Amino acid sequence: MRDTRTTRPETTADAAAVREIHLAAFDTPLEADLVDALRADPAWIDGLSWVCAGADGTPVGHALLTRCHIGDVPALCLGPVAVRPEHQRTGAGSAVVRAALRAARALGERHVVVLGHPEYYPRFGFTRASAHGIALTVDVPDEALMVLTLDAGGPPPAGTVRYAEPFGI
Known about the structure:
Distance between the termini: 44 Å
Structural class: alpha+beta
Number of strands: 9
Largest sheet: 9 strands, mixed
Strand content: 25-35%
Helix content: 10-25%
């Protein structure tokens, strides 16, 4: 059977569907509210909010990259990432994350951090951030904070990650 999913940048018309994806994927509205807050924040970068749409064009997965800093160096933060429960474990999440990372690379972005499942994100090339001297101001499991370098320009900078204000970190 042919895979009929597509990935594409989020459009204004997708905002309600993206919110529904996050509400369906998580137990609380925190992630959905975070995405909405990030849309109004200076950390938002047009073209770095991506959806994975099913055969009928309805978004079923979402991945967001917003501006953060590692020390004083601009970087991106991956998250939230969500897939509707009935589409989880189908490749929709991987497809939308890969598409968002390709878009970031095309924009000349260099580094991406993620605070997430250490079993999931290494498939995209993420490695433990602490190995590069990267940390947060809050306690998280060491293996959950990861970093990815998008180009061959050298390793990521050491420093403390500063997320956009809506993250509250």
